[in-house]
Amino acid sequence: MTTMFNIATFHGDGIGPEIMVPTVKILRQMADASDDYALTFTDTPAGAAHYAKTGDALPETSMQIARSSDAILLSAMGLPDVRYDDGTEISPQIDLRKALTLFAGVRPVTVRAGQHTPLRMPPGHQIDFVLIRESTEGLFHTQGRGEVTKDEARETLLITRDISEKLFRFAFDLAKTRKDAGRGKGRVTCVDKANVFRAFAFFREMFDAEAANHPDINADHAYVDATALWMVQKPWDFDVMVTENMFGDILSDLGAGLMGGLGLAPSADIGLDHAVFQPCHGSAPDIAGQGLANPFAMILSAAMMLDWLGIKHANAAMRTDGTRLREAVEAVVASGDILTRDLGGIYGTDDAAGAVLDALSIA
Questions:
Q1: Where is 82: in which H helix or E strand?
Q2: Least packed by Cβ within 10 Å: which of 68, 77, 280, 342?
Q3: How does it assemble (predicted)?
Q4: What is the pLDDT of residue 361?
Q5: What is the 3-state secondary structure (H, E, C) of 128-165?
Q6: Are 39 and 145 in the same domain?
Q7: Residues 6 or more apart whose Cβ sits within 8 Å of residue 245
Q8: CA 162/CA 166 separation, integer angstroms
Q9: What CATH number corresponds to the domain at position 312?
Q10: DSSP for residue 183
């Protein structure tokens, strides 16, 4: 029996629409070739360009579409010259995280054998870990509401038991899923600064309490500064890392650097009922409309979406297609034959997306 899933698509700003179109094309072809699921797509307006035209970055109708959809696929958002009156950037993706309580920001970091990386990789080593960033509170809690006077500025870090316990449960469940699939060591590392801040001692205490519920998964701790060092020195040792919002924001870009750039960095923001999938990179308005944008992170985000839907709805075909799509992108990147300019190649958006389709060999 074919199950229908509706996807809300936010095409975004700058290069956003250029990378969304081939991604949806690939998803349509994969769904059309399956007897076990089907996909419909609802285009949903939001973003900086929409704000410039209407004064509304995320219309209520778009929020309603997002809430009623089975998943949300969101392309690059924001334009540097379009900002709110207080000078902050237009960021509907953050508004969605908070409105839908998408507490788990999932940032995979993968470097396969043969793939270019700025690191000198020992023979036989690969990188395959996931950084989970709490996405609704932490140091982003007072975003847009910080206190600023002539002589000082204050932002408030918030860590709650409610969100943290959900976050840690998600992290250990993901570690088990990865271990069962043969991708992970079955290890979760809590990244914090518990030696200095009481808030992070509280964070670590809740992590340890959840770890006690998972005797089959190894649990350990690392301070955020040491973690940044080890991500460069021995990234292949990590499996699942979980951390606060700001720390995760910074470390996820370091993870993208290990892969060769943000053009290979997908992400998901996941809650109990909803999830958003989007590339980590920006909207790159300087190359918009030229067909030069790298679609790989967008396509990898779509692969994460298929996997999440497959897990949530016990649809094995979707999980299989999510893996196939991820491995197709990884194979194209590792071969080095068709790469976009940000990765040292000469090819454009359509060539790169076409190479992924070829690797999928959809009948």
A1: none
A2: 68
A3: Homodimer.
A4: 84
A5: EEEEEEECCCECCCCCCCCEECCCCEECCCECCHHHHH
A6: no
A7: 105, 133, 134, 135, 136, 137, 138, 139, 140
A8: 7
A9: 3.40.718.10
A10: S
How many distinct structural domains can be found in the chain?
A: 2
Confidence of residue 262 (pLDDT cuts 50, 70, 90): very high
Task: Give dist(CA 29, CA 53) in Å, integer.
Answer: 34
Q: What is the pLDDT of residues 194-221, one digit of tens each?
A: 999 999 999 999 999 999 999 999 999 9
Task: For residues 19 and 114, give the distance between their C-alpha atoms in angstroms, rounded to a whole number.
Answer: 25
Nearest 10 degrees: Cα torsion 140, 141, 143, 148: -110
Using the predicted structure, report yes or no on whether residue 38 has a pLDDT greater than 80: yes
Q: What is the mean pLDDT of residues 4-23?
A: 97
Is residue 267 a contact partner of residue 87, using CB atoms and an 8 Å limit?
A: no
Contact 117, 89 (CB under 8 A): no
252 & 361 share domain: no
pLDDT at 238 over 80: yes
The confidence score (pLDDT) of residue 339 equals 95
Which range of residues forms the domain containing residue 358? 1-100+273-363
Residue 122 CA: distances (Å) to CA of 119, 125, 238, 297 = 9, 6, 15, 26
| Structure confidence at residue 294 (pLDDT) | 97
| Dihedral over Cα of 315, 316, 321, 322: its sign | positive
The Cα–Cα gap between 277 and 157 comes to: 25
The backbone torsions φ and ψ at residue 144, rounded to the nearest 5 degrees and listed phi first, read 80, -5
pTM of the complete model: 0.93
Find out whether 329 and 2 touch, Cβ atoms under 8 Å: no
